[in-house]
Amino acid sequence: MAVVVGLILAIGIFVFLIIGVPVSVSVGISSMIAMMYILSFDDALLSSSQRMFAGMNSFSLLAIPFFILAGVIMNNGGIATRLINCAKILSGRMPGSLAHTNTIANMLFGSISGSAVAAAAAVGTTMSPMQKKEGYHSDFSAAVNISSAPTGMLIPPSNIMIVYSLASGGTSIAALFLGGYLPGLLWGLSCMFIAWIISKKRNYKSQLSISWKDKFYIILDAVPCLLLIVIVIGGIIGGIFTATEGSAIAVIYSLILSFIYKTIKIRDLPGILIEATKTTSIVVFLIGVSTIMAWVMSFTNIPGLISDVLMSISDSPIVILLIMNLILLLVGAFMDPTPAVLIFTPIFLPIAMELGIDPIHFGVMLVLNVSVGTITPPVGPVLFIGVRVAKLKIENVIKPIMPFFIAIIGVLLLVTFVPAISLWLPDVFGLLTGE
Questions:
Q1: What phi and psi, each to the nearest 5 degrees, are found at residue 314?
Q2: Within 10 A of 197 (CB to CB), how many other CB atoms are there?
């Protein structure tokens, strides 16, 4: 039964995606067909609707629409420009300073908005003309922007971490947020290191000089934006409020800030709400239908079957983790991060736990894997938005982005095989599983 149901799910999703059916609908229909194989038609319909409702009926899930709304407000609220100006000061006048500015701005804006695509669009739109003016090659600028944009998926607050928490059965969101900090910073620093090497070789030097007085005012202007991270993440980790409550605070704070900056007016709110609602509806519906699939896989013991297959290949945790990484990197190249996390968490997490891997460590590894998929063809949404912003073709950036991609894979291997990178901060705050 497990083999037949597994084939129904895999072939069904693949065929529907090939003919252009949306991911959420592909997962939902395939899961319904699989459920009809193991239950009667009436029972399958009833169970599917019940599972779908149960999957969406979660207090923790409310954090996602609020963080999405906060991100949309920030995208329209002039926050990106202030963070870019702040990043210029942090990058100084070292070789390739504008490339470092781009990376730091992506790390800051991506973490605040929670969207890699939004970061690539907002930061890239501002940075590309500046880099071109100072003699940077357009393909290099685009490669820096694309490769560093997904850091915000790891640096909290992160919607994809919340999705993993739900898919894993309630792993601590606060612990996952903390676990993502060091891997996210390592990703950004690895991009800066590659950018520094290339910039030194090509003699990219900043011609921009900022007085100490201007630096003070630029940092002062960016402080309210940066305080959002401190307030939200600090409150969640400190136990002052939950992730859901923190997301609501993020909406209120970003809205007030945008009104103070006079970048958003009352008449803009309906459009902002509609944009956030569209994104939220896609994510929440996907979570609902994925719950049906998760139940079908659990009922037929598909994770157990996959576990047996992997264990038959090798009983070495190193080999198993390498296989998982290869599968997830391949899947991430063809599938958006949210469905990838929802589908593969119930499959791989039991195997990881059997190997003694902490759910927080595995969650960070999983999110890092699917984040890499956002910059790889053929789907790669960050790749596509990055080349569009830079007004280039994809083939123009494939070669320039390869050194960055290799460095990011190096970070992935470090995070995979050095658990302390993901677990040190949660351990310091006493948030590890079982503590």
A1: -165, 150
A2: 14
